[in-house]
Amino acid sequence: MCYKVFVRMAAKKHASSESVDWYLISIDRLKQIGLIVFLILLALGIWWFLRHERGNPRTNAESAIADARQAINALAASKDLPSHRVEYDRAQKKLDQAGAAFSGAKYAEAQAFAVESQTISRTAMSGSSDEDTDAHFITIEGDVQYQKSSSSEWKRADLRSPLVNGDWVKTGSSASAELMFQNGSMYTVGPDALLEIYSSVNPATSRKTNAVQMQVGSVEVATTVDPSTVKTPGSQVVVDSDSSTQIGVDRSKATSVMATRGTASVTSTAGGEPVTVNAGEKVSATASGALSGVKKLVMPPALSRPADNQVFIVAPDTRIDFEWLATPGAVAYQLQISRSHLFVALEVNSRREKTTAAARGTSEGTFYWRVASIGTDGEVGPFSPFRRFRVSGGGSKSGQAGPGGDTTPPVLTLKAPFNIGGQFYIIEGTTEPGATVFINDEEVDVESNGHFKKLVSFNKVGPNAVIVKAVDPAGNQTVQSQTVLVEE
Question: Secondary structure of the chain: what % helix, strand, coil (to 5)?
Answer without folding.
Answer: 20, 45, 35
